[in-house]
Amino acid sequence: MKSLKIGILGLGTVGGGTYTILTENKDLITKRTGCNVEVVRILDRFKKPGVPEELYTEDPDDVLANSEIDLVVETLGGIEPATSFMLQAMEHGKHVVTANKAAVAASYQKLHEAAEKNGVKFLYEASVGGGIPVLTSIQNELQGNRFLEVMGIVNGTTNYILTKMTEEGADYADVLKDAQAKGFAEADPTADVEGIDVANKLSILIALAFDKYIAPTDIPTTGISAITSEDIAAAAAEGCKLKLIAHASLKGDGSVEASVAPEKISVSHPLAGVSNEFNAVYITGDMVGELMFYGKGAGALPTGSAIVGDIISVAKSL
Ligand code: HSE
Q1: DSSP conformational letter for 124
Q2: Which of 37, 125, 149, 271 has the fewest CB atoms within 10 Å, i.e. the most exposed one?
Q3: Which DSSP state fits 79?
Q4: CA dist list (Å): 25 to 32, 97, 183, 312
């Protein structure tokens, strides 16, 4: 039987979810791919219960330069050293799968060029919308469309906060702590609440849907840290909900207008029904019309599901 040997960089929330899926659903994955997909090395200092100790290393080269490893899963988060590690893995001929929106958005072209130069796959479905297979759909099934508009609720933490503030009148700081405890929030939740995480994800959506790279730092971005209960009540009085929206639209001259900001969404719009940590991406294509992708945008198993989907796509291509 063919085999696909995997090294995981970082066994935190998402890396841990990936490991759980690869072990718990191993039989299913083997049957579906005809391939023995096996984790052989893990870079992490902290050992998780239930994971064999001998898999762990604290030396990145034990994964990046390990000739036994075919595919590296990068779930460290943050731009560095994650980006350098992904580039090194590709230079060593390894496929790379990541959930790291900050690194993908910041070095989109460089990472793609490295993958092409080294003849390896570089996949990052998990970087936008957690478990929702929206990037793969944009790149495959929807390729016959010119995309006209993309609107997304793509941050679980801020959607959770806005939902609890809207539905329960909850206090901003209390709900943020709750989101951190549930594992949705970034290590530094500033990236969530100030919209930086959403700008990273929008940059990736724009690159794939509109074939244009707009750096996340060039996307006008406003987060939710200044939203008050009065703002939420004012939106409700107009028959709307406040949602943090990643918004990109194609203009008549071919340019793409992009923003990240709290927007008043009419309660009759499908995005208004997206609550708690759920994410959704609402896409308009010139041929297919309007589509909405909905699901869990954060958390160990939903995000791990997208990573495993990318791993399976590599396994099937072998
Ligand atoms: N902090 C992110 C969120 C994690 O809350 O959506 C998933 O990218």
Answers
A1: -
A2: 149
A3: S
A4: 11, 19, 22, 12
Q: What is the pLDDT of residues 292-316, one digit of tens each?
A: 999 999 889 999 999 999 999 999 9
- pLDDT score for 246: 98
In ligand 1, which atom is closest to the CA atom of 303? 7
Least Cα distance to 250 among 136, 146, 138 occurs for: 146
> Is residue 5 among the annotated active site residues?
no
* CB neighbourhood size of 261 (10 A): 16
Q: How close is the Cα of 1 to the center of ligand 1, in Å?
A: 37
Strands, sheet with 289-296, edge to edge from the N-terminal-most edge strand: 256-266, 240-250, 147-153, 278-285, 289-296
φ and ψ of 127, to 5 deg: -75, -20
Mutation test of ligand 1: which of 153, 154, 157 has the most ligand atoms closer than 8 Å to its C-beta? 157
**pLDDT tens string 103-126:** 999 999 999 999 999 999 999 999
Give CA 246 to chain center in angstroms. Answer: 14
Q: Across residues 272-281, what is the average pLDDT? A: 96
State mean pLDDT over 33-60.
Answer: 97
Q: What is the chain's Cα-based Rg?
A: 20
Atom of ligand 1 nearest to the CA of 179: 5
pTM: 0.97
Say which DSSP state 218 is in.
G
14, with CB counted inside 10 A (0-12, 13-18, 19+), is buried
C-alpha of residue 102 to centroid of ligand 1, in Å: 11
